[in-house]
């Protein structure tokens, strides 16, 4: 028994060591780096003038809540950030001395001035990205189609009632305040002074025109950050009395008063399905945050992708495509691999390429490719930061991590006889470009 245990342990060790030593095939890597990608998920910044700021990069920006801990890969000393400085701005130092960082920032500002409104597109050229989906409250200077495509936030549309009963943590209290501001904007844009008195009127006069306006503005998808606000379980599919209950609750609290947690969730559950159904009618994919989130109060269990099964299995929503953003980053990536078996479910690995290094990410990508390669999407989740680590530098680093991870995953599959070299390149194109082109109907 002891010898068997030792032998089994030795086999496991050898197998793990062999897996860890897989290096990306250099020829395959070179080809992967040539592919013009479609970035499925970003918080790209607009071009601003001196003294101007950009706060439209996220509906629920993490910098307005108590900050959490950065993973090792996301910390400022990640060598890939310095690699980005060298490649994009000619940084010539091997350190981060304050005077050298000051020089870097000055060089970057000079490039931004020279490029003007074309700076965002210039960054895309450096990263080998053709199209970028921009998750923003509103677009702005430099973020013009066809290369930049707007993905607006629509959590506010499912939150017309006072949500104090759901704001159980400091983060949620702040975030629901943000959603109230966005909803006020949508109501105003619909030509109303306040939300209508009945749920039917709210749907017809606020939700429908808002979604139609977003589609008309060129949006290929809409975004939900619901996991920051509540659990992703939106209740059973279409209970017979759901509409009547939601109408009664809405009518009671639309103008004043505070509904209970259960009542607010009842209305949100109904409205989420309504929004998702209309999105499908309009050809808008529905993006949903899954997995790890920012802040020290984030409800990880509530962000579990399988919480969405009642939505993903709802026959009335089969015409709506759902994209599980971040692919359940953290503990839920295995669940996502199987959820992609559903005909209208896709996933990207955005944020994962910011939180973990290529070696770890390659295992996630390989598992997904071995399940449903047609459903896997590339994304960076790049976002604003300090000048020396702003969205362009983060984008360079996450792009580098993602492409290398993809190369490692495919090389391992080739080595194990699962695919051929030509098939590996086909899969790389699918992940980086073709799957998104098909999903969103983008033009070559």
Rounded to an integer in angstroms, the radius of gyration calculated over CA atoms is 23 Å
Helix content: 40-55%
Give the C-level CATH assignment. Alpha Beta
User: Which ranges are low-confidence, i.e. pLDDT below 50, for 5 or more consecutive residues?
Assistant: 1-19
- Indicate the proportion of strand residues: 5-15%
In the CATH hierarchy, the third-tier topology is known as TIM Barrel
Can you walk me through this structure?
With 444 residues, this protein is of the alpha/beta class. The protein has a single domain, classed as Metal-dependent hydrolases (TIM Barrel), CATH 3.20.20. Helices cover 48% and strands 9% of the residues. The chain has 15 helices and eight strands. The strands form two sheets. Strands 4-5-6-7-8 form a five-stranded parallel beta sheet, with helices on both faces. A three-stranded parallel beta sheet has the order 1-2-3. α2 (26-34) packs across α14. The longest helix has 25 residues, at 391-415. The radius of gyration is 23 Å and the shape is globular. The model is unreliable at 1-19 (pLDDT under 50).
């Amino acid at each position: 028994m002891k010898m068997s245990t030792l032998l089994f342990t030795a086999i496991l060790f050898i197998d793990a060591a062999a897996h860890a030593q897989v290096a990306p095939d250099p020829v395959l890597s070179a080809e992967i780096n040539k592919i013009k990608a479609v970035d499925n998920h970003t918080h790209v910044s607009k071009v601003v003038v001196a003294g101007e700021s950009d706060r439209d990069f996220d509906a629920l920006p993490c910098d307005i809540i108590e900050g959490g801990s950065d993973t090792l890969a996301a910390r400022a000393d990640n060598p890939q950030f310095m690699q980005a400085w060298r490649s994009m701005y000619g940084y010539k130092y091997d350190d981060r001395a304050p005077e050298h960082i000051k020089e870097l920032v000055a060089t970057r500002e000079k490039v931004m001035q020279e490029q003007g409104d074309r700076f965002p597109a210039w960054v895309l050229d450096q990263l080998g990205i053709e199209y970028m989906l921009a998750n923003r409250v509103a677009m702005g200077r430099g973020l013009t189609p066809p290369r930049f495509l707007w993905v607006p936030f629509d959590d506010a549309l499912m939150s017309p009632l006072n949500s104090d009963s759901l704001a159980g943590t400091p983060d949620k209290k702040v975030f629901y305040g943000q959603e109230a501001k966005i909803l006020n904007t949508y109501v105003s844009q619909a030509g109303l002074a306040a939300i209508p008195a009945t749920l039917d009127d709210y749907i017809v006069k606020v939700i429908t025109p808002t979604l139609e306006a977003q589609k008309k503005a060129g949006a290929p998808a809409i975004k939900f950050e619901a996991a920051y606000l509540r659990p992703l379980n939106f209740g059973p599919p279409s209970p017979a009395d759901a509409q009547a209950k939601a109408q009664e609750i809405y009518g009671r609290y639309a103008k004043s008063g505070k509904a209970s947690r259960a009542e607010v969730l009842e209305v949100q559950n109904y409205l989420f399905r309504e929004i998702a159904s209309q999105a499908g009618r309009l050809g808008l994919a529905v993006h949903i945050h899954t997995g790890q989130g920012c802040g020290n109060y984030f409800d990880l269990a509530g962000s579990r992708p399988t919480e969405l099964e009642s939505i993903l299995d709802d026959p009335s929503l089969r015409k709506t495509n759902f994209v599980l953003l971040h692919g359940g980053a953290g503990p839920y990536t295995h669940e996502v691999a199987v959820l992609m078996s559903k005909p209208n479910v896709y996933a990207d690995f955005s944020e994962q390429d910011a939180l973990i290094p290529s070696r770890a990410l390659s295992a996630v990508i390989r598992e997904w490719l071995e399940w449903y390669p047609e459903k896997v999407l590339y994304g960076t989740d790049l976002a604003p930061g300090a000048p020396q680590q702003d969205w362009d530098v983060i984008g360079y680093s996450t792009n580098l991590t993602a492409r290398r991870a993809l190369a490692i995953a495919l090389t391992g599959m080739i080595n194990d006889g699962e695919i051929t070299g030509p098939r590996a390149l086909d899969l790389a194109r699918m992940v980086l470009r073709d799957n998104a082109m098909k999903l969103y109907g983008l033009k070559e």
